[in-house]
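Table S7 (text form). Paired inputs.
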Amino acid sequence: MKLWGGRFSKDPDQMVLEFDECIEIGNRMYEQDILGSIAHATMLGAQGILSQADTKAIVDGLNGILEDARNGKITWSVDAEDIHMNVETLLIERIGEAGKRLHTGRSRNDQVALDNHMIVMDACREIISLLTALNTVLLDTAADHLDTAMPGYTHLQHAQPITLAHHLMAYVEMFLRDLRHFEFTYEQADEMPLGSGALAGTTYPLDREKVASLLGFSRITMNSLDGVSNRDYFIDFISAASLTMMHLSRFCEELILWCSSEFAFIEMDDAFATGSSIMPQKKNPDVAELIRGKSGRVYGALVGLLTTMKGLPLSYNKDMQEDKELFYDASDTLQHCLAVFTAMFAKVTYNKARMAEAAMDGFTNATDCADYLVKKGVTFRDAHRISGELVAYCIKHGKILSDLSLDEYRAYSPVFDLDIYDAISLETCIGKRNIPGAPAPEAVQASINSARARLEAFKAKFVQ
């Protein structure tokens, strides 16, 4: 008979047990569940709700179970239904009657809510650690490539010349935003729901603030109905994970393009590529492709949980049991992707000559030609037209802007002079763009310094 079986005359049907079974997912949160129970029992003893003898027996018993579980000495039972009942059943077996008093003043509803808050906070810390490691690699790589020219793109067409450092710093900014998203999620989860009971609190004089303090929470929940039915922090987590996966997917797409023969900007390390079973020349960027593909898996978890929650009346409903499987799948996927992407990216090598050559393809300096005219007193619209006409002339005659003679330039505007050649050089096109956030080496170095400072703040707060 179940621990809750007093109301029932027979055990659940075997099909129901199998359908309802969640121990495979729940056993992943045994540590949070046991630590939550230790805090609860400690508080019950401090409040005089349990005797000191019972409190000590319960806490000692729970610590023993925790140690055995950490050492792989416990096999969680499907018959006990979930991790909460497993722990309590095992406690009663080990310490006897005192174990039956552990659940005083709480329900599984607020017990599982507590575990949920704790696993989300733990996962946020892990993701933040992985994101800081990735950003560190990106920043170090950017610092090594302040002068590595490459084309910038819009519409996947050559636009203006930039540097590899500037391009990488765009992803650093994305991942820094991701860090803020997980910081927000951590703060949303950082409230202690135990004491909400099944839905209406309890008549026992619980010290909820003490439990919060023992477990490291900064505050308690303020409504018992919301305390047991809130799953926003799960949705916040998977939403943040979806954004991070989107950023990883975009990055992977570019790396996939860059290592193609058409671009030839980079070479993937052999340890992070695969070959073909039939084409001996192939070197496929499978790791990047897999990360790109797994973004859909995390998106699916987000849509799945939103759909599960959208029609649920207050307060707790069994539908919510679906939350942890979706959460763990999204969390595991993101953690694996971040770890392997960081390792893969650290081994990428760069074809600087090819990138510099490409930086001047496609008339990426046409804007600088127009800016040159503007600085000579030509209106921007006229300068834009003249530069476009020069590009058309070059295309027709198989030239680039730096190939044109001064006479050819002056055929389109008399203000052109010999300084046009310096104005449209690759070094000038990049180096003169020196306002904050622009690609000039000095500006990018300032961005790197700023990003490192922001990253250190996250490390100080979350990374041990």
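Next pair, protein 2 of 2.
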Amino acid sequence: MAQLWGGRFTKATDKLVYEFNASIGFDQRFFKEDLQGSRAHVRMLAKQGILTEAERDDILAGLDGIEADVESGKLEITSEYEDIHSFVEANLIDRIGDAGKKLHTGRSRNDQVALDMRLYTRSQVLYTEIQINHLLHTILHIMEEHTETIMPGFTHLQKAQPITLAHHLGAYFEMFRRDELRLQDIYNRMNYCPLGSGALAGTTYPLDREYTAELLDFYGPTENSMDGVSDRDYLIEYLSALSTIMMHLSRFSEEVIIWNSNEYRFVEIDDAYSTGSSIMPQKKNPDIAELVRGKTGRVYGALMSLLTTMKGIPLAYNKDMQEDKEMAFDAMDTTNGCIQLFDGMLETIQFNKDNMEASAKNGFTNATDAADYLVNHGVPFRDAHSIIGQVVLYCIDRGIAIDDMTLDELQAISPVFEEDIYEAISMDTCVNKRLTVGAPGKEAMEKAIESYKEYLAE
């Protein structure tokens, strides 16, 4: 078919060049956004007297018909068209004649695609925020149920100090809350309308860009027409936010994988979110967590691809920017899918409380509290550290926990120990005497949970 830009050319584009240049295979994804932008544009043109009301109504009816026929399957978006903009305009002209040729008045494909990508990304930002918000509710629900579920906290993947499951998951609540706030920041920064920027220098037509922006629920028009057609910062920011979300999901997945192992047995993953082995009948594999962890690199790749594409582009629009779509679309689909699947897995997971507490007790996680006990009885901290180091070695040699030592055994290492040492190093005491803001003590966690509820209720 003849191209919308073909007047300047005297022969057809080489077939391979045409296919290499075409974007219809992926930009058809924002078919509805293209229609949405065109409807706003034609309404603005009529308001400004650039089109008649009759022409406006004909164009709007034609766009409605195209949308209905595509949705019903009567009209197919095919590779016959170079891009989604050409598909819509060519079909509009076929249906309503000369009035359809006026749709593009005061508009360039540069500001048109800039608008379509911004509208699509804006909707995806909102969708991702909804998914993250649901995940936050899931995490908070688990926290409420497990303020007294004791488990070991880790540094260097070694047991460090006793905490609660609520405290551990609270760290992920903080991560995903930051993710949600980042998405809100991105939305507020990107929500300005590039339509009316033209190819790069605006237009001589008396466009009302504020009215167009209002029709499309933007805060206002972009302030510079060159930046309007060539800005993809908002998409880079969104891909960066998606990469951070995937990093958080991957960290959480790694822990679920470890907790699911035979050595830990902290969790039981629901059958609906795990698979078996084709050869080993005893296996129950944490495939969802592993795939989330694995797909993280895929999203990182999209971010690096777009950063690399944009780094050498002079103002204003260049065809390189067509590369902003395919990998970005994949990253959006991947991240949103991973959030939903991880959320479902987390909602149905079972936590083995007894195994968690036993692991904390048998990992010397109360050693720090034993040292603090000595300090509170007048022993300098450095000496207390050394004494408890000897206690731990004694326990390792005998395969016991500190709690299992008799008072005579403890006093043989240091006469400072008294009967109250056992209460001081009990798991409950170790956790619940930590009441500073952000600590795992029950009172501190209940305050944190209330603040999280208030956040989600806003």
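Residues 359-457 form a domain with the Ribonucleotide Reductase Protein R1; domain 1 fold (CATH 1.10.40.30).
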